[in-house]
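User: Can you help me understand a structure? I only have the sequence.
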Amino acid sequence: MSTGHILIVEDEGDIRELLRLCVEGGGYRTSTAGGAKEALALLQVEMPDLALLDVNLPDGDGMELCAEIRERSNIPIILVTARKGGEDIVAGLEGGANDYIVKPFDVNVVIARIRAQLRGFAYWKKTYQPYKLISGDLQIDLKSCSVTVGEKEIILSAKERQLLLFLAEHPNQVFSASLLYDRIWGLDGTSEENTVSVHIRYLRKKIESNPSSPRYIQTVRGFGYKLCWTDE
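Assistant: Let's start by predicting it. Here is the structure, written out as tokens:
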């Protein structure tokens, strides 16, 4: 059984539905959007494992959306479009896409391309992903599980450490309190929202220079929490 979350951005409803059925039939979870604005809203909630993007969108250029995703993540991006000229393909690949599928397409080819890109991305992450994450004066070592701010090592409880490391392994992705509770506490906790919010507050006091205006652990109102991470 395949695993992974695929974002499908396609303005034509029948093609979008065909891609959804095709991708879900391949064992993947999907999110769908009919335009760039809707896609960007979905990306604020969760970064997918791969994106299938139409180039011609009613509210923007798929190439611009491709560039926006590439600024946020290294996930594979496959462009799906009726444009089949060599210049268009070159522009798409040089613009950040990993692959290019021309309409009309064979659904089996789409699934094969998705699997190939996900295999390559998984290998890249396993081989090249750094074990130290550094942003500003905060450093998280994913191997030793140590956390430092400036030159000072921060003492965390077991659950605080687990929560921070989970967020660090998924930088800039938003997670609901419910999901964080399930991943960190499982059946051990008693109050989902309160347990998560209390630990988030403790973490902010320990790693933020101004906990009331956090730089790192940010609240996305109506959705949950994310670890805001940059290379600066």
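Now, to help you interpret it: Residues 107-128 form the longest helix (22 residues). Residues 132-227 form a domain with the Arc Repressor Mutant, subunit A fold (CATH 1.10.10.10). Let me know which part you'd like to focus on.
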